[in-house]
Write a structure and sequence with these properties.
The protein contains 17 helices and 23 strands. It is of the alpha+beta class. Its EC number is 6.1.1.14.
Length: 505
């Protein structure tokens, strides 16, 4: 008998606990919550924005500081409408949608079928689930929308709201948000909120290559917002309508793309492991079917509480993007390579570079990091008759990523301890994000910092006033170390430096 339903229930509970934790401790809030929120849109709270910014800074430095041939840009969100014609988004950036006539609710047809397949898997009918997904894939590849509707009806898939199978025809829906390119209605062409950040890199290829004096192979990195009008947005911040991408397009000489694709594939996996994601929770998923322009594509997936899902894609895109923009803009996107081809003895000359893309979702990496860090363990406190067992919850974040690096606590609010704690706080706050707390018992203060992932708690007590030493309590082990105040900056700095992560790359 399969234990899949029980496992799914446990996983759903884990996700609910993480979502609740994220809100209660200032990581992620539903957007516009006082107005009942906006579906698939979230705000990052005080601790969440620090963690996310740390992840973005880490990615940026890993790309641009550790590679002499990778530089960055920050392209505009609005772009000329022709950009999205050349990229294929105007014609082909679609999802198959279907409405239920009774509930008036709209759904992605492919998600309805995938959810049915998940039900079969949970019931131990893996073969039936596989056949269903294979049929769906074939129909979508053939753009057979009538066949997709027949599949929904034949599988007796009902609307979760109305419970009926009264469906409209399936039709394609473009996911790009559009707006007017002028303040005066009707005066300007329709423009789009970008659905990806990559095109801002492609249209700036020659600007960057010339101004940064780069030779192929070289990369262009960018972090930025993207927008997709997702009809079905689920699983917390995993799929949102407004999200942030961290992308790097690496331009290479044709014929070398396979080598560079494999290099970046391994490099990006090492990055995720160095950040703290467990190796056993990461896997490569090669694309079975490639876009017509792609030579290879793989996803790095992380095992979330809701299963393995993509956090980053690595794609060998050939010369498709630059060639498309070259043809539509009528501006050459070629690079002159004066390196000598050993086969001909002459320079390689002009060519349109091929591209290897790495694209990671900042929000997905944030969620993976939060899921990995969320820990519950059973601990024993007290001795003898006072001994008790309880569950301890904490965030086991890498110290370099933690929102707050250290919390300074006066043991009591008297005898000069608060003043000494404030002195230590002031000596550290220009180097690290630190806080000082006086309220509540010391145990409760420890717990609060554990719940937001603070790696060190520094306690000022009576001995501090005598010998200028403090107790440093470590989040993961709960062990305590006595050290001079004068050593705190170096001790914390060594632990929270990005260098501790870069050493693993």
């Amino acid at each position: 008998m399969s234990n899949a339903p029980q496992k799914a229930s446990i996983e759903n509970t884990q996700l609910k606990d993480i979502v609740s934790h994220a809100k209660e401790y200032g990581f992620v809030f539903p957007s516009s919550e006082i107005y009942d929120g906006l579906a698939a849109v979230y705000d990052y709270g005080p601790n969440g924005v620090e963690l996310k910014n740390n992840l973005k800074r880490l990615w940026w430095q890993a790309m641009t500081q550790l590679h002499q041939n990778v530089v960055g840009i920050d392209a505009a969100i609005f772009m000329a409408p022709q950009t999205w014609v050349a990229s294929g988004h105007v014609a082909g950036f679609n999802d198959p949608l279907v409405d239920n006539l009774d509930s008036k609710k709209r759904y992605r047809a492919d998600v309805l079928v995938e959810d049915k397949a998940a039900e079969y898997e949970a019931a131990g009918q893996q073969d039936r689930a596989a056949d269903l997904l294979a049929t769906l894939g074939r129909l979508l590849t053939d753009n057979d929308l009538a066949g997709v509707k027949e599949l929904i009806v034949s599988e007796k898939i009902v609307c979760p709201i109305s419970g009926t199978c009264n469906w409209t025809d399936v039709r394609q829906f473009n996911l790009m948000y559009s707006t007017q390119g002028s303040a005066v209605e009707g005066d300007a062409a329709q423009i789009y909120l970008r659905p990806e950040t990559a095109q801002g890199i492609f249209v700036n290829f020659l600007n960057v290559q010339k101004s940064a004096r780069q030779k192929v192979p070289f990369g262009i990195a960018q972090i930025g917002k993207a927008f997709r009008n997702e009809i079905v947005a689920r699983q917390f911040i995993f799929r949102m309508r407004e999200f942030e991408q961290m992308e790097m397009q690496f331009f290479v000489r044709p014929g070398t793309e396979e080598e560079w694709y494999n290099n970046w594939k391994q490099a990006r996996r090492r990055f995720h492991e160095a950040v703290g994601l467990a190796p056993e929770k990461l896997r490569f998923h090669d694309h079975d079917k490639l876009a017509h322009y792609a030579k290879a594509a793989v996803d790095i997936e992380y095992e979330f509480p809701f299963g393995f899902k993509e956090i980053e894609g690595i794609h060998s895109r050939s010369d498709f993007d630059l060639t498309q923009h070259q043809e539509l803009s009528r501006k050459k996107q070629q690079y002159f390579d004066n390196d000598v081809n050993p086969e001909t003895g002459k320079p390689y000359g002009n060519y349109v570079p091929y591209v290897v893309e790495t694209s990671v979702g900042a929000d997905r990496l944030f969620l993976a990091t939060l899921c990995q860090a969320y820990q519950e363990e059973t601990i024993t406190e007290g001795e003898g008759e006072k001994e008790q067992t309880k569950t301890r919850t904490f965030l086991k974040l890498h110290p370099a990523l933690a929102p707050i690096k250290a919390a300074i606590f006066p043991l009591v609010k008297k005898d000069g301890m608060p003043e000494k704690a404030e002195e230590i706080f002031n000596s550290l706050r220009f180097d690290f994000p630190v806080i000082m707390e006086e309220r509540d018992a010391i145990g409760k203060r420890y717990t609060r910092q554990d719940l937001i992932g603070t790696p060190f708690c520094i306690v000022v007590d009576g001995q501090t006033l005598e010998d200028e030493t403090v107790t440093v309590r470590h989040r993961d082990s709960r062990e305590q170390t006595r050290m001079p105040i004068s050593e705190l900056r170096a001790y914390i700095g060594q632990a929270v430096s990005f260098a501790r992560i870069f050493e693993k790359l």
